[in-house]
């Protein structure tokens, strides 16, 4: 396997109020992996993402980038698309970068490319109130795309969407992942989504937040509906489910 991109070694995170969100987390990511974090509410999935994004310091242990350039090329997509209601799709995709200054100001062609990549051509002048939940999430992904990331952090981006929309966006993200050679760290509560998307599913447990299993999904990409309905898919889902239920009862997986 290639050189690691990022390693978390024995990472613990204790918040100011004393909550031990993570304890002894070891996680290594390689370029091109699509890794999903699954686990019960409060097990520290978002905390891992925030630490990787540099939105907080580890309390113990270390978080090391093996190539500092990659750290600068990460983008974060949240469950809440967090669009500015008074701004058009085009301006929503543009504005956060505009605020960051000239160096990151993309050209109109860059903005249009990002909008096209998420299939929103024709909606450039629409306002968030005119868009469905799935379309808002597409705008949020376009906003990440204009920064030309190589590493995507996605925190339950499709948690609020219906099954059909979620399925379509899953395929679109997989296409972008392949096309743009991204590395993805993806948080979800949905084990089917995790298995469908990922090259690896990392299972976490709560109190304290820790990793209890790391399950490779040894199936080729692109993933298809055939995979979704295959016995291999069922097998992987059952493996993740078993690891999750053991993590909740405390018995070994
Ligand atoms: N800023 C904070 N200050 C204090 N405690 C926090 C803070 N952020 C998170 N926590 C606590 O840390 C623990 C882990 O939270 P985190 O949001 O990382 O979990 P999660 O697995 O992403 O949860 P969910 O699936 O519900 O989003 C929880 O007990 C949470 O209440």
Automatic annotation (TrEMBL):
It is a peripheral membrane protein. It is found in: Cell inner membrane. Keywords: ATP-binding, Nucleotide-binding, Transport. InterPro entries: AAA+_ATPase, ABC_transporter-like_ATP-bd, ABC_transporter-like_CS, ABC_transporter_ATP-bind, P-loop_NTPase. GO terms for molecular function: ATP binding; ATP hydrolysis activity. It comes from the Bacteria. Gene3D superfamilies: P-loop containing nucleotide triphosphate hydrolases. PROSITE patterns: ABC_TRANSPORTER_1, ABC_TRANSPORTER_2. Its main location: membrane. Transmembrane segments: none annotated. One of its GO terms (cellular component) is plasma membrane. Residues 6-231 form the ABC transporter domain. Belongs to the ABC transporter superfamily. Nitrate/nitrite/cyanate uptake transporter (NitT) (TC 3.A.1.16) family. This is ABC transporter ATP-binding protein. It comes from Vasconcelosia minhoensis LEGE 07310.
